[in-house]
Design goal:
- With 343 residues, this protein is of the alpha/beta class.
- It has two domains: 269 residues, Rossmann fold; 60 residues, no CATH class.
- It is built from twelve helices and nine strands.
- The longest helix is centred in the N-terminal third of the chain and has 19 residues.
Length: 343
């Protein structure tokens, strides 16, 4: 655990239900990480949200009924990662590694613990790329000393297995859709690409990965089985508080984070998940063609801790908190209530 002297807080307002608090966490090497803390701090639970990306922003997660419901129950800390969203200060792409990103999470956890006390239960809640980031923080920093639980939401903790799982699931669903006479032309284009993709490769071409990702989102859009119960959160930009600023931040980050992206896209940690010693919720979606559900099944299979559990939402894709917000919140709440106080 990093000493609190390495992180400075700029905070305002007293603790109360329904708080909104903005602050920056200053790291020992000059980054300023933006945190928005909202919700019910009196619950004694803080969910630290690790957004997708690695180019992204936590603001896009701060909208919709799922966020409102989580904030009514617990406090949610929306963290803009280094060089992303509203975070500021130093970012050196030559030094921005997976370890550096994980260390930033450890620093923020230290600050939350130091500010809100030993009795607060802190959970990591990582979506997509945030799944890899949270996994690394638990494996290769001291964050687990301060964490009560880990909720990986459609997370990718293994970029080596992900492409083959995407190809397998997209082929399975696509062939069934074509056989049923639904969107045959569009599925035909997707299947032609997928079937030419070599999922057993150990090194993937960046362009191939890009198109695999794009076809994954297109495939989701063709499926009536995926629901959109939350039209507010379904708009991926609905939560942006300053679209112009976030747009500039996204462009800057996309250029600066190439090294981090390259490392993340060639890393896999499935064989190390058994080292995680905090309870885990692996929450995935049946029709996610970006971070497929098989990643979550693998995680529970290799993690020996009895508190680890797998939940699959059957009418969701990669944006499962928008597809089935009530089911999503219920799964998170059940996990938190079953494990809080275990630290």
């Amino acid at each position: 655990m990093r000493p609190l002297t390495t992180a400075l807080l700029l905070l305002a307002a007293a603790c109360s239900p329904g708080i909104t608090r903005h602050f920056y966490v200053h790291t020992d090497d000059g980054a300023e990480l933006k945190v928005l803390l909202e919700g019910n701090l009196d619950s004694g639970v803080i969910l630290l949200l690790l957004h997708g990306g690695p180019v992204g922003s936590a603001h896009v997660y701060n909208s919709g009924s799922y966020a409102e419901e989580l904030e009514a129950r617990y406090a949610v800390a929306y963290l803009d990662q280094r060089g992303q969203g509203a975070s500021q200060g130093r970012i050196d792409s030559r030094e921005y590694t997976l370890q550096r990103a994980a260390d930033d999470v450890d620093t923020v956890v230290d600050v939350l613990r130091g500010r809100y006390g030993e009795d607060v239960d802190i959970y990591l809640l990582g979506h997509s790329w945030g799944g890899m980031l949270g996994t690394l923080a638990l494996l290769d920093t001291d964050a687990s000393d301060d964490i009560t639980g880990w909720a990986e939401t459609a997370g990718c903790h293994d970029s080596l297995l992900e492409p083959r799982y995407v190809v397998s699931r997209m082929t399975e669903v696509g062939e069934a859709e074509v056989a049923a006479g639904r969107e045959e032309a569009r599925w035909g284009t997707i299947l032609s690409f997928v079937q030419a993709f070599d999922p057993e490769a150990t090194v993937f071409d960046d362009e191939d990965l890009y198109y695999l990702n794009q076809y994954g989102y297109e495939a989701e859009s063709l499926l009536d089985v995926i629901t959109w119960e939350d039209p507010i959160a379904a708009d991926r930009f609905a939560g942006l508080r300053d679209p112009q600023r976030d747009g500039v931040a996204w462009w800057t980050a996309s250029r600066e984070l190439d090294v981090l992206y390259d490392e993340a896209s060639t890393s896999g940690f499935t064989d190390r998940l058994g080292e995680i010693d905090v309870p885990g919720l692996y929450l995935y979606a049946s029709y996610d063609f970006v971070c497929p559900a098989q990643l979550g099944r693998d995680a529970v299979a290799v993690n020996p801790h009895g508190e680890s559990r797998y939940v699959e939402l059957e009418h969701s894709g990669h944006s499962l908190m928008s597809n089935e917000p009530a089911a999503y919140v219920a799964a998170v709440e059940e996990f938190v209530e079953d494990t809080r106080g275990r630290r």
